Model the fold of this input.
Amino acid sequence: MSSEFTVLFSNDYKLNSLNGITPNTQYLGDPSSSQWVSSGTPKVFEDQVILTLSEDGVSASGTLLASTSYVWYGQIEATVKSSRGAGVVSAFILLSDVKDEIDFEFIGADLSNVQSNYYFQGITDYDNEKNLTVPGGDTFDSYHTYTINWQPDQLTWAVNGTVMRTLKKSDTFNSTTNQYHYPQTPARVQLSIWPAGLSKNGQGTVDWAGGLINWNSVDVQKNGYYYAMYKEVNVKCYDAPAGANVTGSKSYRYTSKDGINSSIAVTDDPTILKSLLGTGTDMDKDFPSASASASGSTHSATQVATVPGLTGAGPGTDGTRGGNGNGGSSGSSGGGGGSGASSAAGSQSTGIGGFSQGNGGKTKTDNNNAPPKSERILQGSVFAAVVAIVGMLVL
Done:
């Protein structure tokens, strides 16, 4: 009934290369080997990481970076230039394995605002979503710093140092479930770009995103993809909440199926899997040996696990989860075109030549009064050591 995932210590992550980024087809749960797990096609251009979204190929479902460690309350900020264009969404969020979630989301059809949102265990509540006006320019042309200050009793969203929204835990009590519908379990930092405006998605998702994606836009014509730029992520972790079960400092662990604050223990338990077949309850599971294969011992299709986490994450059922964003080869720089953009996906990278940052030709802002989406397309690897526990903990 338990599984381990790594504690995140305070850190300043400079996103100026692909060093420390490992495809989700390779990561086995050792945070000392990598800071981020990727799916899709991350690239580097002029000392900035760009996440890409193409019509087909490796990044057809978007690109995601997810931290290899977790934070349980803290101040987390990201310096971002969002994507643009109807149907294209970029994001900076915190997401736990029971689908507690805290969001900044950037709707490409509305570059004057950023959407703040939160979820408790993936329960959809449209009243949780609020637009925040970004001071000092639009979200695509200029870098802005977005800050989540997550405490056990209060949550704030800030833009460029100015608090724009405050949520108190005491205001989230739900008398039906007799619970506080407040994010309260250890979460990973996730940075992403994804295609909300696809015809296969639910109509509510498409409307929320400003309409269908235009695959003949200026950005796609120049580069072969839409993109968002991420410059830096800074994490300041807070102490475990009062009364927490603390017996170590290396890993978090769920001790019950409740998926709430009191079900978390801080331990020194290991988090590293032997292979991608491993789970939080069977960390030493491995592929069959050559001798076993020769003797006729095989695994069925259901026994040989696929890459952890590729079924997506996030609340709701309106919309379609993405495909399997295979990260390709290694996290080191690969060939990415003539102008110096390099890709973690190696030869599988998409695009038509080098990267060119867009300017001018801004997308018209949409009123965006349609019902918001209730589906997150986040195909990144759920931290490998907790795969077994995720399904059990979704209540």
Remarks:
- The chain has a mean pLDDT of 77.
